[in-house]
Amino acid sequence: MKRDVLIVGAGGAGLYAALSAVKENKDLDVAVLTKVYPTRSHTGAAQGGINAALANVDPTDNEELHTFDTIKGSDYLADQEAVKYMCYEAPKIIRAMEHMGVPFSRLGNGKIAQRPFGGASKDRTCYSADKMGHVMLHTLYEQCIKEGVEFLNEWFMLNIVHDGKRAIGVTAINIATGEVELIRAKSIILATGGHSRIYWGYTSNALGCTGDGTAAALRAGLPLKDMEFLQFHPTGLRKSAILVSEAARGEGGHLKNALGERFMKKYAPEKMELGPRDLVSRSIMQEIREGRGFKDEEGREYVHLDLTHLGEEKIKERLPQIRELAIDFEGIDPIKEPIPIKPTAHYAMGGIHTNVKCETPIEGIYAAGEAQCVSVHGANRLGGNSLLDIVVFGNVAGKEAVRYAEGTDFADGGEEKLKEDIEFINELMNKESKETLGDMRNELGEIMFKHFGVFKNEKEMQEGYAKLKDLIERAHKNLGVEDKSKIFNLDLQSTLEFFNLLEIADVLAYASLQRKESRGSFYRDDYPKRDDENFLYHSMITKNPDGSFNYEKGEVDISLYEPAERKY
Amino acid sequence: MKKIGIYPGCCFQGADIHNYDITTQFLEHMGVEGVLLDRAACCGGGVIDETNKKIVYGLNARNIALAEEKGVDLYTPCNTCYMIIAKTKLALDSDPELKKKINEILAEEGLEYKGTAKIYHTLNLIRDFVGLDEYKKKIKRQISGVKVAPYYGCHVLAPNEVAIDDPENPTILKEVLEPLGVEVVEGYKDEDTCCGYHARFTEPEQKERLAIKPLDGAKEAGADIVATPCPLCHKAMDGYDEPILQVTQLINVACGSTPEEAGINLNKTEVKLSL
Amino acid sequence: MKKIKYTARIKRYNPEEDRSYYQDFEVEVEDSLTVLELLMYIKDKIDPTLTFRAFCRSAICGSCAMIINNRAGLACKIQAKDKIKNGVIKIEPLKTLKPIRDLVVDQEPAFEKLKKIKPYLEPDPKVVPDNLKSESLVLPEEFARYDKQTDCILCMACYGQCNALKGDSEYLGPFQLTKVFRFIMDTRDGVDVEERIKLAEDHGIWECVQCQMCFAACPKGISSCDDILELRRIAKDVGEENIATRRAKFWFATVFETGQIDKLHLPEVAFSDEKGKKIRENMEKEFKQRGLREDEFGPKPFEGIEKFRNFIKKIEKEL
After folding, report:
1. What is the tens place of the pLDDT at every residue in C84-135?
2. Could you read off the pLDDT of B50-79 as tens digits, one per residue?
3. Separation between Cα atoms, residue B114 and residue B130, nearest integer Å
């Protein structure tokens, strides 16, 4: 198989990239490869909204304020020109999507409605009730149908293939048949999403958010950036860790401890519940640590997100999905009772290193979306900025990939890699498992949440890293695929995903140990202060052929705003 | 004697005029006095919506108000009338604004929708209004040696909000049939496939394709007849190889009516009952 | 933590042998599992070959629609304990799509049908600006007309137990028709309503049997069968003339006139041909045989019909 532009992943970034690619040059073969179906991707789960300084609600808002809020929220680790680009693109891309049919909620005057959100100085978050990601994803898919974008559904990418200078293609397995193929491509866009599933049972993410592209990039020798930064969202449901959107706080929800206190007054007296996510997550964990949390029969600790004072009408109109989630998965109606919540691993700021043109160091290989790290989120992403990031950089990646494909031919080679991958799969299929995938996945989640969670320190991390190394070794030794069928073998796919998770967890743990400071979402109680002198850099990690890591420091662009203390 | 309001739907009209006799006969056997809601109008039939959905709310608020005016609950043997009226009741009871607006208009006819009348269909009338034990006492003779396949039709089981029984595993029809002495044949192919009645005048071939499926399934499973509570399903499915009757027809016979009185001779596909 | 014991009866399909069969799994698990968590438990602990799709586990991605105890729904949204009947929970693949393996079905035909109806907005230049400096204006009440329909997650639960599809495998399907309605209602859409209706008519709106199963199945509470009635109304309003629209007009007219539909004349009016006339003549013959008087053949206005007509007029105008 050959495609001029091959996009891996069909979430918001992948679909936007596909649209901008086909619009840029109709004559190119553009295809989207996805391990699921297009509208299944995790973009659909984004509830709260998308930021753009439209100034529809607050006329004093502008792109510059959005830029500053984002940089401040990032704890000054974001690249400032890149942030500026994103924030200035925001109003345009929102309008572009509005023109495509995205059903935004509206103000009385017919304009797109906007709501307040954590870390934002103005009411800037455009929304569609609490299903923003869902309606965006579906509208983008609709437009892809309109433009005749080709989809390779239920294909799972194994590896990225290049010749050291430029892209050759990817190897992938057709889930329906089990056949492994080399798909040649002039340019490849990795839009494979995040990797919060390394926290397995402690994450809001979909089962498939396993960082497949990020792990493949690492194997292909591409640098991963800022991998130690992974955001915990303050409000995951107690049992399932499924997300309760920030919209719940944006609409006026209160966080309360077991004493009934709105404890955020201690941690963010001005912003209260609308402080940035990292701060709110730590505040919740601090309350729990100091014994002011609740504990259920299972020993799960949590605090309350109280919406009851908002009243039935407002909850039903503005937060219908949140109410549904609370009822279905927690058995609690937020109209009547507070929702039990705890922080949940939510979003990876780190990812495949690219520049602002979405280019990786290998020609023809691009990344976009949560898999990518430009970085526009730095050490902490603001709510409403991820949906923005994926479409802004999806758009860039699509155009850049076309530009590159137009000026080049298909590269030769890759047959070796294909052979290797087929052999690897065969080996895995023929191996008898000595441990079960389910247990090992749970073990990974436990290790990561306990040792690399909301609070970290040297001792905990060292201990955790040893456990992780042991798990990785056992996995390679003991784990095979028990389902021997070639047709729709999801046991095989889950096993491959698990190996990806292990690789990423390894990098995240390694990167975490190197950073001896606290910044944004990354918090160490042994180094509770930000240390700009020594750590104002992007961590850049590549994997050496012997499996060891190569660690480099990348420069942070601080050309617009001098780093200052981040206070809310 | 307990009273109930008989809602006259279109299943009492035209070629189906005998359904009214079947219904009154049935109520008589059950020891229930039927009060005809003589000013009631069509429920909308899923067709008035094609003119204006709001009229459907109006029509059925009014229909229920007519029962309430007479101080009785409302009974319809028709699955579709039941579903549409019950759905309207749900909408009115959960939307005070809608109820208020409709009542303002109803007032001109001297009517008011209060929400006090319950909506009954044959099956839940037997179970909840008459009582299954009481029902069994009314049966005078057994219809033996007949294998009967119960066919619910759609609108007593969907949508869930108005279902008269557990929509996933309904048992009420079996419970009503068994005391009649018949052998009940369940779990046949296409037992939950729609009869297609409502496509009769939108895509007639669609109705033909569907109506035969449950009949074939029942036949394959060895059933002699199919029994449905719904006069519309009956109308849609009568005339094929496998005979179909309304449950009330069987009940009437078991309670002492002759097959002719029960309208069984009017069936297009002949039915022989051994009594 | 309360544990409960029950049997999960799962319909499996082995593609290598082209064989469907039920397999019972005896489980003792937490009572608060969703059906998806139950399936994951079985895959993790008992049989790793059990195959089903799942992704978000929070009822937004639409991957895990299946038939649970005879009704379609999302496995992740349904509590297993609510579905245990006599110690058994029955789990099967969606019905109107072919199984690929176990609970995984081939969704392609349903997606292909979606593509047929232009499932996208073509901007109306009168409403949608041609530049990125401004947005189209949509009033909240205009958006409210299709807000619910935009909740559709393409999970295919409705499609998986649609009765119209059992009659015609080429039937478009409920969620596809809801999509047509969604775009017709969108003030920004520039496709002619007539064109959208045409697309919805081919193996579409007229084949729906109004069984309500799509509504019963939808995890988002969307009522495609009601959207289809709206599409029929719109079809009638833009001048479509066929058996169904003739029926709809006649139905309303006679109900308005007498309170009841005139079923004696309905076939004649709807079919508008010799066949319809024949049906009426046969009915009349039959009535005479049964000894009915001619004035008993059709509905007569009830007492106070004038008030009823006023009521209908007011409802139309004021509600």
Report:
1. 999 999 999 999 999 999 999 999 999 999 999 999 999 999 999 999 999 9
2. 999 999 999 999 999 999 999 999 999 999
3. 24
Q: Which of A40, A54, A92 is nearest residue C61 as measured by Cβ atoms?
A: A40
Q: CB–CB of C166 and B58 under 8 A?
A: no
Chain B partners (3+ C-beta pairs within 8 A): C
| Domain layout of chain A by residue ranges | 2-46+80-104+129-229+349-406, 233-343
The answer to whether the Cβ–Cβ distance between C248 and B160 falls below 8 Å is: no
B95 in reach of chain C (CB within 8 A): no
| Total-model pTM | 0.96
Show me where the domains of chain C are located. 3-104, 107-237, 243-318
Residue A9 to residues A22, A240, A336, B210, C54, Cα–Cα distance (Å)? 16, 25, 40, 41, 16
Instruction: Please indicate whether, in this complex, the C-beta atoms of A44 and C56 are within 8 angstroms of each other.
Output: yes
- Give the CATH superfamily of C3-104: Beta-grasp domain (3.10.20.30)
- C12 pLDDT exceeds 70? yes
Domain A233-343 coded CATH 3.90.700.10: yes
Nearest to residue B256, comparing CAs of B36, B28, B62?
B28
Average pLDDT over residues A250-259: 95
Give the largest CA-CA distance in chain A: 67
Per CB-CB distance under 8 Å, the chain A contacts of C56 are 40, 42, 44-45, 206-207
The Cα angle at residue A105 between residues A104 and A108, in degrees rounded to 5? 130
> Does residue A42 sit at the C interface (CB-CB below 8 Å)?
yes
Chain B segment 138-197 residues within 8 A of C by beta carbon are 154-155, 158-160, 167-169, 190, 192-194, 196-197
Which residue from A minimizes the CA distance to C113? A145
Tens of pLDDT, residues A103-139: 999 999 999 999 998 889 999 999 999 899 999 999 9
Of the candidates A5, A328, A326, the one whose C-alpha atom is nearest the C-alpha of residue A152 is A5
Contact A39 C153 (CB under 8 A): yes
- A2-46+80-104+129-229+349-406 has which fold? FAD/NAD(P)-binding domain (3.50.50)
Residue A276 has pLDDT above 90, yes or no: no
Nearest beta carbon to residue B58 from set C270, C290, C312: C312
DSSP E strand stretches across chain B = 2-6, 32-36, 74-75, 119-120, 147-150, 183-184, 225-228, 244-246
**Dihedral, CA atoms, A272, A274, A278, A279, nearest 10 degrees?**
-10
Contact B105 C319 (CB under 8 A): yes
Correct CATH for B140-266 of 3.40.50.11810, 3.30.56.10, 3.10.20.30, 3.40.190.290: 3.40.50.11810
Q: Does domain B2-120 have CATH number 2.30.29.30?
A: no
H-helix or E-strand spanning residue A405: helix A386-406
Q: Do B168 and C298 touch (CB under 8 A)?
A: no
Q: Is the pLDDT of residue B274 over 80?
A: no
The string of pLDDT tens digits covering residues C271-309 is: 999 999 999 999 899 888 888 888 888 888 999 999 999
Architecture of domain C107-237: Orthogonal Bundle (1.10)
Answer for the pair A118, A78: CB distance below 8 angstroms, yes or no: no
Instruction: Mark which residues 199-238 of B lie under 8 Å from C by CB.
Output: 199, 201-204, 206-207, 209-210, 213
The predicted model gives C17-34 an average pLDDT of: 94
Q: Give the CA angle between residues B57, B61, B67 to the nearest 5°.
A: 150
Cβ A145–C107 below 8 Å, yes or no? no
Does B102 contact chain C (CB < 8 Å)?
yes
Q: How many helices (DSSP H) and strands (DSSP E) are in chain A?
A: 16, 20
Say whether B140-266 and B2-120 share the same fold: no
| Segments making up each domain of chain B, as ranges | 2-120, 140-266
